[in-house]
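User: Just a sanity check before I run the rest of the batch. Below are the structure tokens for the first item. I only need the designed sequence back.
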């Protein structure tokens, strides 16, 4: 089968940072779906793994943790899917990625794809929807329908996670949603997705909130550059507030949270599949709910750029765009 991967860790610039490969087709396990991949999207995790996970000439690494496709066959213990079903999912970081014609995924973390979306539009959603959903409802524990009189600051509102988090918070809670963006086009993007207000994260956050007439917030979703914003996030939170973090950083001093009795929550959407937690199937269920909300017109796709067919050259361009820090929404690719 065709696949795209790497044999050595490289920066994104060299032409061989990703390669077109021919690999054996995978064999599904008892709870797996064998999926013929139709579309994928690119996430920051693809870039991080490409930079850091070793590979060899004999054992190349295949990336890609967002896919839409058609089920070719199912494992012996699969109950919720059958051949011919159209599915979407984010997969597991401990297994080969979905940048391949055929891919296997545990049925517990997959769902039927939104009927109202084309393949590329649907491929933009799984990883970021899981991350945003778990961050908002499982980590920060905002109840669906709740949050009246409270506010959420989304740092990096125009990114992949921010783009769906704004929608979930606006549509499924009563929170006042304040996003951050630094360019006119990303500001407009956040407002179009439902943010009540947008502040400029190139300015000190606490001052930008004040300048916009906003009080300190109850919750912060720290989605990007948390290390550089950390002191300002603490300043911007109300006493007894909460922040949830998704990005990596060299250091984070939790003692600074003590004075306001703030809580800190880490969101890692791969944790359930990595450890096969008892509630692993919650990811499949939440993706099914996201699909329902999309088909009802409550949520919209976050796809904003289409980079053509799935091959090494186009994926390299997508990786470079994600690495630039200027990506808005999600980059998708379709077909081999």
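Assistant: Here's the designed sequence for the first item:
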């Amino acid at each position: 089968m065709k696949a795209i991967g790497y044999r050595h860790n490289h920066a994104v610039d060299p032409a061989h940072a990703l390669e077109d490969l021919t690999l054996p087709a995978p064999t599904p396990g008892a709870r797996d779906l064998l999926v013929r991949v139709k579309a994928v999207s690119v996430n920051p995790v693809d870039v991080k793994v490409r930079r850091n996970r070793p590979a060899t000439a004999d054992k190349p690494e295949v990336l890609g943790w967002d896919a839409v496709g058609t089920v070719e066959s199912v494992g012996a213990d699969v109950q919720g899917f059958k051949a011919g079903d159209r599915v979407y999912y984010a997969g597991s970081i401990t297994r080969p990625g979905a940048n391949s014609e055929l891919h296997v995924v545990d049925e517990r973390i997959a769902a039927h794809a939104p009927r109202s979306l084309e393949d590329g539009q649907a491929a933009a959603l799984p990883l970021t929807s899981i991350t945003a959903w778990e961050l908002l409802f499982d980590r920060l524990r905002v109840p669906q329908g709740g949050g009246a009189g409270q506010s959420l600051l989304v740092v990096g509102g125009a990114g992949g996670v921010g783009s769906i988090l704004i929608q979930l918070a606006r549509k499924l809670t009563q929170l006042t949603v304040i996003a951050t963006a630094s360019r006119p086009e990303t500001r407009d993007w956040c407002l179009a997705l439902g943010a009540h207000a947008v502040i400029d994260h190139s300015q000190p956050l606490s001052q930008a909130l004040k300048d916009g007439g906003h009080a300190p917030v109850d919750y912060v979703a720290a989605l990007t550059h948390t290390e550089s914003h950390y002191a300002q996030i603490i300043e911007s939170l109300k006493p007894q507030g909460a922040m949830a973090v998704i990005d990596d950083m060299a250091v984070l001093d939790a003692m600074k949270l003590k004075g306001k009795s703030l809580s800190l929550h880490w969101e890692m959407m791969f944790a359930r599949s990595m450890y096969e937690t008892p509630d692993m199937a919650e990811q499949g269920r939440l993706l099914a709910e996201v699909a329902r909300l999309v088909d009802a017109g409550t949520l919209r796709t976050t796809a904003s750029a289409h980079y053509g067919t799935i091959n090494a050259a186009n994926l390299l361009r997508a990786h470079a765009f994600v690495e630039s820090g200027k990506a808005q929404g999600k980059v998708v690719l379709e077909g081999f």
